[in-house]
Amino acid sequence: MKWAVLVGGRGSNLAALLESGLDVRLVVSHRARVGALDIAARAGVPARVLLPRKDEGPVALDRTLAEWLEAAGIEAVAAAGYLRILRAPVVDRYVGRILNVHPSLLPAFPGLHALEQALAHGVKVTGVTVHLVDAGLDSGPIVAQEPVPVLPGDTADTLGARVQAVEHRLLPAAAWALDEGRLEVRGRQVRWRQTSAGVCAPPGGTRRGAPDKSEPRFGSDTTQVGRRAPCEH
Ligand code: GRF
Question: Does the active-site annotation cover 168?
Answer without folding.
Answer: no
